[in-house]
């Protein structure tokens, strides 16, 4: 059964009809009411259709935090097409790999990232037929909107039809596109609405990137679903955050844990007016308890949450419990069934999984309307992650006696650097191509600024010497900067189990 009402794009049509002049979206260039945002999305849909975007086809977005990013997401949904946000921090070969995987018919990119887009398309076997620069002078995107015939109709979709394709790498190093349907976006917004107490008067400051689930699916889309206003900041600057909070009367904002010590320093230094702020929110990694207490001492509740691209928000710690339960990520969201099961049972059918007792650590699994439908053209990876409706998160945790969840670690081989997931296997696969490298193992090590950074243990080819500067250059040409190891250590051999598996905990 297909319906216009199941299409996320219908939200803006309804808001524009019911409260046309209510503020909806603000970025560095413009401030839009719901009527103005709806008009721009209708024109963007017309422009994208003119570029060949049809139902089920993909449009890739190599864009920053600007109104065009959200306009393109809603425009693609309006057509029944799929938006593919791409991480602007990636290197050209990584972007080319994702273009080859999703095969978009069009690419919208920042004008300032023209050389990166050009290099990625040149290295892609499936370079998009149409490209449109956003920003710059003249602005090709604005010209396309002005010339387009607005598309007023909203495509009828099934709740299961994909709306977004968002990439996450895996333990194999191969990027996987999580297919996120319209119903997932809706129920994620309902969960955020319940956890955040969203109201039409709310104003969210989105400074984390829109190409990540945090900025797009947890902060911005739920606020627009509720009829509030999204204020976009193009990049993180702690002083600029507090200026926006004071000037725009921000209700709440979100950031990854590495941002909050810097925000705390700027808060104490500049003493801005924060009287409009209901709470702060963090997710992406564990945050030190003393940081939560420090904000509480200054009258600001710092709530913690937990989620991932495949599910968006899974748990949220209410402001009333932010200090009492500091360190926990909160209780499960309303529209999800969350269990913590014994890891040794995961090889069995879900009906035979045993739940962990309070205090006992296990793997977090979830089912419900907030899960992805699967990985784009990756049936084996989908079968590994989705088991009879249950999604295996790869995160370890435990319940306490009150039903609050605390994270205990990861079953997947990854670390988090500055809020970005880094999968060591992807980094290792790149360095295995270097002529001086025989073997390599990458692990995450603590870092005072980024939380964790990569350290590469390298077994060199006979006669080769370790040249850290050369290995840095090699990595930066092929990987995003946050993935490139910060240290390289030469070792005679990697520690292995009897079966040959590298024992990274010994490195």
In brief:
The chain is of the alpha/beta class. 30% of the residues lie in helices and 26% in strands. Among the domains are: 1-181, Rossmann fold; 415-506, ANL, C-terminal domain (GMP Synthetase, Chain A, domain 3, 2-Layer Sandwich).
3D structure, described in words:
The structure is a single chain. The protein is built from 14 helices and 26 strands. It has 507 residues and is α/β, with parallel strands linked by helices. Among the domains are: 1-181, Rossmann fold (3-Layer(aba) Sandwich), CATH 3.40.50; 415-506, GMP Synthetase, Chain A, domain 3 (2-Layer Sandwich), CATH 3.30.300.30. A 9-stranded mixed beta sheet has the order 2-1-10-9-11-12-13-14-15, with helices on both faces. Strands 16, 17, 19, 20 and 21 form a 5-stranded antiparallel beta sheet that branches. The longest helix has 17 residues, at 34-50. The termini are far apart.
Features:
single chain; 507 residues; alpha/beta; Rossmann fold; GMP Synthetase, Chain A, domain 3; 26 strands
List the helices and strands and how they pair.
Blueprint: H1 10-18, E1 23-26, E2 31-33, H2 34-50, E3 58-62, H3 67-79, E4 82-85, H4 92-102, E5 106-110, H5 114-122, E6 130-134, H6 140-147, E7 162-168, E8 176-181, H7 182-196, E9 203-206, H8 213-226, E10 229-232, H9 238-248, E11 252-255, H10 259-270, E12 279-282, H11 289-297, E13 302-308, E14 312-316, E15 331-332, E16 337-341, E17 362-367, E18 374-375, H12 379-385, E19 386-387, E20 390-399, E21 405-410, E22 415-417, E23 420-422, H13 424-431, E24 437-447, E25 451-460, H14 468-476, E26 487-490
Parallel strand pairs: 1-10, 3-4, 3-5, 5-6, 9-10, 9-11, 11-12, 12-13, 25-26
Antiparallel strand pairs: 1-2, 7-8, 8-18, 13-14, 14-15, 16-17, 17-20, 19-20, 20-21, 22-23, 24-25
Helix pairs in contact: 1-2, 2-3, 2-6, 4-5, 7-8, 9-10
